[in-house]
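To the wet lab folks,

You asked to see what we're planning to order before we commit. Fair enough. Below is the target structure as C-alpha cells, and below that is the sequence we designed to fit it. If anything looks off to you, flag it before the synthesis order goes out.
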C-alpha cells in the first residue's frame, strides 16, 4: 500500500507515575544487560536479540490510498470472471513475543508490525503476507538520534508520505530527562530508518513530555499526528493532542489541539495511545486508559468532528475493550483493514495470570473483529 494504513470504517448510515518508572521492562535476562553496561528500558521487554540519510528519490510504487486502489482494481475490465478478494484470518506471532503498543501498516502485498522496544531492538518490525504468518523481528531504527538516550523507545507509528516512509517514535530526551517524540525516514517500510534531527519533533516538557505518536492521513491527503502529553509523569492529567503535519511529514504546522484528558473512573491514573478512524462524516478516537501494568488497563473511545477535534468521550462509565478470559489489561489499539475491507482491532494484552514483566508476562499481539453499527465500534473477541 503506498499510502500508510489509514484506518477507515465503513460509512455509517448517518454519517506516569514518574516518567522513569513508566512501563517498566521485563528483567528475565537482567544480567546480560548489566554485563553489557546498559541501562534497563523503562517501557521495553529486555530480551536480548541480534542487534542513512533522508533520500527523496522515487520508489517503484506510487503512493495510493488502499481503499481507493481496491476500488479502482474492482472497476478494471477483465477477460473472465472476477474473484472478489477474500477476508484474511489474522493471528499473532506463534511464539507469543512481546509486541507492546502495536502499529500495523499495510504495504503492497504485505503487512508490517512495529512495536515498543524489546531488548536491543529499538523498534522491532516483523512482516507478514497474510497477518498470520510473521517473520522474526528486525530493528527498524538501529541508530537513535543524538538527542535520544538508549532504552526507552516506545510506541512507533509509520506512514508513507510522498516517496518515503516516516517512523514516529518516543524516546528519552537526554537534555530534558523527559520522553519526547522524534521522526525518522526510510525508502522502505521495514527500514532501516534514519533520524537526523538534533532535536525532538515534539517535547512538551512543561506537560511531562510527549509519547505515543500516531500518524493519520485523511481522505483529502492531509496528514496529522496524534500523541499524548505525559502529564501523569508530573502530577497532571494526561491529555491527548493532534496537529497537522507539513506535507513532507518532517515538521508540524498550525497549532496543537487538545482532544481529551483523563478523568473517567476507569481511566485512572492516565489515558494514552491515541488512534483515529474515519467513520463517515465524523471520526472515532481510540485510546487506552488505566495503569499499563494492571488488569484494569483497557481501551475506550470518543467521537470527533475532525482529526483535530472537537471530541466527545463516549466510554465514560466503562471501556470498550477490557480484561477478559486469557487477556489481561488490553491496550495500545489500532485498526487494521484487510483486502475485502474487513477490519480488526489490533492491540496488546498480558496473558491471563501473568501481568507484569516481573511475573514472566509479555504484552503480546491480539486481534478482534471490528464492525460498526450506527457509527459505533463493535468489537468481537
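Sequence we intend to order:
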Amino acid at each position: 500500500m503506498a499510502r500508510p494504513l489509514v484506518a477507515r470504517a465503513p460509512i455509517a448510515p448517518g454519517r506516569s507515575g514518574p516518567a522513569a518508572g513508566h512501563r517498566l521492562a521485563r528483567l528475565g535476562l537482567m544480567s546480560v544487560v548489566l554485563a553489557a553496561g546498559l541501562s534497563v528500558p523503562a517501557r521495553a521487554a529486555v530480551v536480548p536479540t541480534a542487534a542513512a540519510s533522508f533520500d527523496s528519490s522515487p520508489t517503484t510504487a506510487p503512493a495510493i490510498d488502499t481503499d481507493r486502489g481496491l476500488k479502482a482494481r474492482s472497476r478494471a475490465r477483465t477477460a473472465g470472471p472476477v474473484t472478489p478478494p477474500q477476508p484474511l484470518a489474522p493471528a499473532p506471532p506463534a511464539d507469543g513475543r512481546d509486541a507492546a503498543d502495536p502499529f500495523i501498516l499495510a504495504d503492497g502485498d504485505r503487512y508490517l508490525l512495529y512495536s515498543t522496544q524489546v531488548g536491543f531492538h529499538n523498534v522491532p518490525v516483523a512482516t507478514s503476507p497474510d497477518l498470520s504468518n510473521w517473520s522474526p523481528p528486525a530493528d527498524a531504527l538501529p541508530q537513535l538520534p543524538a538527542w535520544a538516550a538508549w532504552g526507552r523507545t516506545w510506541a512507533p507509528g509509520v506512514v508513507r508520505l510522498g516517496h518515503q516512509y516516516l517512523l514516529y517514535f518516543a524516546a528519552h530526551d537526554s537534555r530534558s530527562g523527559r520522553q519526547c517524540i522524534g521522526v525518522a525516514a526510510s525508502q522502505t517500510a521495514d527500514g532501516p530508518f534514519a533520524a537526523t534531527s538534533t532535536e525532538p519533533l515534539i517535547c512538551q516538557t512543561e506537560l511531562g513530555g510527549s509519547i505515543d505518536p500516531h500518524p493519520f492521513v485523511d481522505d483529502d491527503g492531509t496528514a496529522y499526528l496524534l500523541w499524548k502529553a505525559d502529564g501523569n509523569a508530573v502530577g497532571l492529567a494526561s491529555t491527548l493532542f493532534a496537529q497537522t503535519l507539513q506535507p513532507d511529514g518532517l515538521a508540524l504546522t498550525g497549532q496543537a489541539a487538545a482532544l481529551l484528558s483523563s478523568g473517567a473512573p476507569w481511566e485512572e491514573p492516565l489515558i494514552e495511545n491515541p488512534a483515529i478512524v474515519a467513520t463517515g462524516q465524523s471520526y472515532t478516537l481510540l485510546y487506552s486508559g488505566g495503569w499499563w501494568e494492571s488488569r484494569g488497563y483497557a481501551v475506550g473511545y470518543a467521537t470527533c468532528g475532525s482529526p483535530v477535534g472537537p471530541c466527545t468521550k463516549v466510554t465514560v462509565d466503562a471501556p470498550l475493550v477490557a480484561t477478559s478470559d486469557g487477556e489481561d489489561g488490553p491496550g495500545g489499539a489500532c485498526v487494521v483493514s484487510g483486502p475485502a475491507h474487513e477490519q480488526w482491532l489490533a492491540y496488546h494484552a498480558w496473558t491471563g495470570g501473568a501481568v507484569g514483566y516481573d511475573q514472566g508476562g509479555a504484552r503480546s499481539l491480539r486481534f478482534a473483529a471490528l464492525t460498526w453499527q450506527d457509527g459505533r465500534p463493535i468489537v468481537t473477541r
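Structural context that might help your review: Residues 66-75 form the longest helix (10 residues). The CA atoms of residues 23 and 292 lie 7 Å apart.

Thanks,
Computational group
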